[in-house]
Design brief:
This protein is of the alpha+beta class. The protein is built from 5 helices and 19 strands. The chain folds into 2 domains: 2-112, Probable inorganic polyphosphate/atp-NAD kinase, domain 1 (Rossmann fold, 3-Layer(aba) Sandwich), CATH 3.40.50.10330; 122-236, Sandwich (Tumour Suppressor Smad4), CATH 2.60.200.40. The radius of gyration is 19 Å and the shape is elongated.
């Protein structure tokens, strides 16, 4: 049996027809199941662990990127199959997973095409997609061998599932880090443009463990969830998450 975790925003009337159509399609496929509605402070891990004890065969996240991050930031290493039914806007992760937004996502779920995904970890939270630190004055140490410290601000992106894209030398470079390791992209800020900062070409390096620190709190965004930190440790989690994906996935 599947358990469906509905984001609270799906209560809005504008999503009624989509949700009803999805539930009908899931019933047609014979994979309808228990529905649990999430609140902002719901402990998703506790819910999932309780459902695993009851013999659930899959946890299906219903919502957007924010919902995906809310659930997996705590529950990514739970021993169960995960699925994703994206609804509405804010669904970049769904595109990477090869899952269409709306009713057609049910078709992907019914085919149960499964892959194992690496999971990143930092400060007792998990991230499946990527971790992002906006331009900040930070010190980066990795694998206990290398240290990067600059006087100016730098942007740091640690990729896992979602690729990192930037323009350089007239080309678009897309990296798909799905090789059992995390990869970091460090871009120093060189100045202010009219609409956004200007950057140097990024330095790219794979790592096993990284420590990022600063004298002042800096913003960390992981799978859509933000926090303020002065020091974080980033590494690859020991366990992987099993996820239903589409044939058109980008990795």
């Amino acid at each position: 049996m599947y358990v469906y975790l509905y984001d609270n925003f799906l209560r809005q009337k504008k999503y009624d027809s989509t949700i009803k159509a999805m539930e009908t399609r899931l019933t047609d496929f014979g994979i309808a199941g228990k529905i649990i509605r999430l609140q902002n402070f719901t402990d998703a891990k506790a819910i999932i662990e309780d459902e695993i004890k009851k013999g659930v065969s899959g946890i299906i996240i219903v919502g957007n990127d924010s919902t995906f991050g809310h659930v997996l930031s705590r529950a990514a290493t739970c021993d169960v199959l995960f699925g994703f039914l994206p609804v509405g806007s804010g669904n970049q992760i769904a595109e990477v997973l090869g899952i269409p937004v709306g009713v057609e996502a049910c078709d992907i779920l019914s085919k149960r095409r499964k892959v194992k995904l690496d999971v990143g970890w930092f400060n007792n939270r998990y991230f499946v997609s990527k971790l992002y630190i906006p331009p900040s004055k930070i010190t980066v140490e990795y694998d206990e061998k290398f240290k990067v410290s600059t006087k100016d601000k730098v942007e740091l992106v640690v990729c896992n599932l979602q690729p990192f894209e930037w323009k350089g030398k007239g080309q678009i470079h897309i990296i798909h880090p799905q090789d059992g390791k995390l990869e970091a992209f460090l871009r120093p800020v060189t100045g202010k443009g009219i609409f956004k900062d200007k950057y140097e070409e990024p330095s790219i390096f794979p790592f096993q463990e990284m420590i990022v620190s600063s004298r002042k709190p800096f913003t960390v965004e992981a799978d859509g969830k933000q926090s303020k930190e002065t020091k974080i440790k980033i590494k690859l989690a020991r366990k992987r998450v099993e996820m239903v994906v589409g044939r058109e996935r980008k990795f």
